[in-house]
Amino acid sequence: MSGYAFVRQGVKPFLIVVLVLLFVIYIYFSREAAIFATNSESSNDTTASQRVEAQANISATKPDTSLLADESAEQGSEANDSREFIIKNAPKWRFDGVFIDHFTELKQRAKQGDAEANYLIAQNLKYCFNAPLDAEALEATLAESYEFSDAGDTQNRVLEKYEYCEGVDLATRRSFYRYLAMAAEQGSAFAQQTFAGLTPEFYMKSQFPEKLSRAEFIKNRDGFKERKTVFLEQAAKQGSEQALMSLASMYYSEQVGEHSAAKAYAINRLIMEITQNNDVYNRYAWFEQRQYPTLSDEELSIANNLFDQWLLQIKQNGTLYLKH
Fold first, then answer.
1. Where are the beta strands (DSSP E) in 164-310?
2. CA distances from 209 to 92, 203, 206, 265 (A)
3. Pseudo-torsion of CA 217, 222, 224, 227, nearest 10°?
4. Distances (CA, A) of 125 to 21, 154, 196, 285
5. φ/ψ of residue 141, rounded to 5
6. Which site from 6, 130, 177, 211 is most exposed, i.e. has the minimal number of CB atoms within 10 Å?
């Protein structure tokens, strides 16, 4: 056998082994590639799934911006409503010096239909109503003050009032009610809410010094109570906290008209709605919670209707007369 033939015979087995190894390597890498591709797809699917889930979670926990916008707009509207209210402060009614020096000018203004002038006159004459009329009355009042523990302070107040009101006779002082009623009829909420501090007893004493028959007494007293209620309701609808408080008390004690319990409940809610004083709010919230279980369905319906109507009018008027 030649050397060349021997070499050819030796090469065949070697080529076979090489081919087998190449085939094995091919099979191995093909499987690895397939596994890698599968893992990559699985990883991609997992990542995609995680992204979808994360987006779902974000959607689930994300606030509803449209709802917040509506709520924000509503809150803004309420804040705007509050800012739109004009706080009305009562004019200073007491003057420097003595009242008589200002009386003539005020009466001229009142004759021209000036509601504030009528109000100022009424407040001053009402203040002067119980002041001593002359020196003799002053001495008697000062003598009585010695019985009080704060005699010195009491005497100073008596002297101050006497000097301020000197020169105004009793008949003029009694006319405070006429001026006050005129101012109230002219729409002055300050005058209207002042009726909260007038009792039927004081009205009868100040306006009817002479003795009346029982029928006349009842007629005039009840007429005053009706007029007082009308004026307080008008002031309440202008946002008078004092008028609302007075009405709530009057209705709760059943002094005025029908459905008084329902009206008292509605007005307690109105006070809670407009007041800027936390103590007042808490007090009337307690009243409201105490009243609620005692009202029938019909009374609650009446109360809710009254609350809505009056609150709308208060907002339309756009004024608040806060009690200080």
1. none
2. 30, 10, 7, 38
3. -160
4. 126, 20, 17, 37
5. -65, -40
6. 211
Q: Are 180 and 191 in contact (CB under 8 A)?
A: yes
Q: pTM for this one?
A: 0.72
- Amino acid identity for residue 266 in this structure: A
Nearest by Cα to 127 from 89, 163, 88: 163
How far is the C-alpha of 178 from the C-alpha of 118, rounded, in Å? 9
List, for residues 79-114, the tens digit of each pLDDT value. 334 447 899 999 999 999 999 999 999 999 999 999
Predicted confidence (pLDDT) per residue in 156-213, tens digit: 999 999 999 999 999 999 999 999 999 999 999 999 999 999 999 999 999 998 889 9
Residue in the block written with tokens 């890498």: 29
Please give the Cα distance from 321 to 94 (Å, whole number): 19
